[in-house]
Amino acid sequence: MLRIKHLDRHGGSVEDRSVIGDPVVYYSGTWTTTRNDDRLIGSSAVTATSNGACAEIPFYRGRAQLLGVRFNTHGKAAIYIDGVYHSTVDNYRASWKAQEIIFDTGT
Length: 107
Description:
Blueprint: E1 2-6, E2 13-15, E3 26-28, E4 31-35, E5 44-48, E6 54-57, E7 65-70, E8 76-81, E9 84-90, E10 97-104
Antiparallel strand pairs: 1-6, 1-8, 2-5, 2-7, 3-6, 4-5, 7-10, 8-9
């Protein structure tokens, strides 16, 4: 299980390819959804809007990549794998850019 925990109010956005209402991705905290934006994978993304907001994403193979949006209003997020802290990622970028690899397990 890959878990991303946003460390500040604007931790960042995760591009969302899942079907709306599909219980594959589990969210806690406050999130907003952007839809119908062709610059995004699957045309949608979810953005954390509260401190400590989390997204839990199961993966079952050796490698997982987390894709998202980086922008000047986004901050840092902690990455956990199977409940163990792995690293902190910085989602800040001076100009808006989608389809960025936010995190890669590398295996």
